[in-house]
Write a structure and sequence with these properties.
The chain folds into 2 domains: 171 residues, DHBP synthase (Alpha-Beta Complex); 100 residues, 3-Layer(aba) Sandwich (Rossmann fold), CATH 3.40.50. 31% of the residues lie in helices and 21% in strands. The protein is built from 11 helices and 16 strands. Strands 2, 3, 4, 5, 6, 7, 8, 10, 11 and 12 form a 10-stranded mixed sheet that branches.
Length: 336
């Protein structure tokens, strides 16, 4: 793992030289690890798509180091967008804005670009040192679970990239929320194109309920991660709500990913079936953020272990639970 670097100024300066040479490298954010390249360069952006095996019409998010840079690369058109920037950035949110021509058309081949300022200190220091807008999707092979550690990045890309900056575990564990402000019927509305760590309730609170916020599946070509299979593992993912939905299958390696509450309610059953199931806790209903934090790490582990069937407990679809289940449902789509 000679391409894994510790975060320090020497590393950031090496990263700056790599970005300026149209190279691609991985770095941590508070959500997941990103696979970054100079967003002003067609050549650099093309390398991201090639490394990931990512469809070219799946747009990339552009990361910047501070709020003042946003207007260099995109147009802030209204006060609602400005409030989102002022109140929620830096943070795990991506705002879709009208793209300026300086951004490579390879990064996004639509008139809009997703702009994000990560809250992670290492990402902040890196972006400040580099001084460029960095296009960065998740640092994994397209379709697989997004990486939340440097080791997960390495397991996906090995030494095909010259640098992986090790920032430990990502705090949030799922990608940023992607939002768009639209003006229709004489009013502004916020659309959540991709649910993430910033929830519908968080956005509503920013505007004290005066602006409507809706989940939207329209125009999936505008947001990354919404048109193609994502978050998959080698085995089958099944979502369950009750014990009766979990089935024994001989000669199959079966794992159950569940909350403490579910396992406690059914501890006698799982004790009797100890030889037939392998159990992983997904922590607790009392703190669903921990479920988000661990989800992709668990998926990566199951994939490496060669699981045949993964049963994942259905969580309440509100707040962060909605975002978590969005990922779980996408991972189960290939077998639906």
């Amino acid at each position: 793992m000679q391409n894994i670097y510790q975060p320090n100024q020497e590393t950031y300066l090496k990263a700056k030289a790599l970005f300026e040479s149209d190279e691609v490298l991985a770095f941590p954010t508070e959500t997941i690890y990103g696979l970054g390249a100079n967003a002003l360069s067609d050549t650099a952006a093309e390398k991201i798509f090639a490394l990931k095996g990512r469809p070219n019409d799946n747009p990339l998010i552009v990361h910047v180091g501070n709020k003042h840079q946003i207007s260099e690369y995109a147009e802030i058109e209204n006060g609602i967008q400005q409030v989102i920037i002022d109140k929620l950035m830096p943070g795990p949110i991506t705002l879709l804005l009208k793209k300026r021509d300086i951004i490579s058309s390879v990064v996004c081949n639509v008139p809009y670009v997703g702009i994000r300022i990560p809250a992670n200190q290492i990402a902040q220091e890196l972006l400040t040192t580099v001084g460029l807008p960095i296009a960065a999707p998740s640092a994994n092979i397209s379709g697989k679970a997004s990486p939340t550690t440097a080791a997960m990045v390495y397991d996906n890309l090995w030494e095909r990239i010259p640098m992986i900056i090790d920032g430990g575990e990502s705090e949030a564990g799922i990608e940023s929320s992607v939002v768009q402000v639209i003006f229709k019927d004489e009013k502004y509305t916020i659309l959540i194109l991709r649910p993430g760590f910033v929830t519908k309730e968080d956005l509503e609170a920013c505007f004290e309920g005066e602006i409507e916020v809706h989940y939207s599946q329209k125009n999936p070509e505008l947001s990354p991660g919404m048109r193609y299979k994502h978050y998959s593992i080698g085995g089958e993912v099944r979502i369950f709500s009750s014990l009766e939905e979990i089935r024994l299958e001989k000669s199959k390696k079966i794992w159950v990913l569940a909350t403490q509450e579910f396992l406690l309610d059914h501890q006698e059953f799982f004790a009797q079936q100890a030889g037939n199931f392998l159990i992983q806790e997904r922590w607790t209903y009392q703190n669903l953020a921990t479920c988000a934090h661990n989800l992709f790490e668990k998926y990566h582990y199951f994939d490496m272990e060669g699981v045949d069937i993964l049963y994942v407990e259905q969580l309440p679809e509100q707040g962060i639970g909605y975002s978590i289940m969005n990922r779980v449902k996408r991972s189960a789509e290939q077998h639906s």
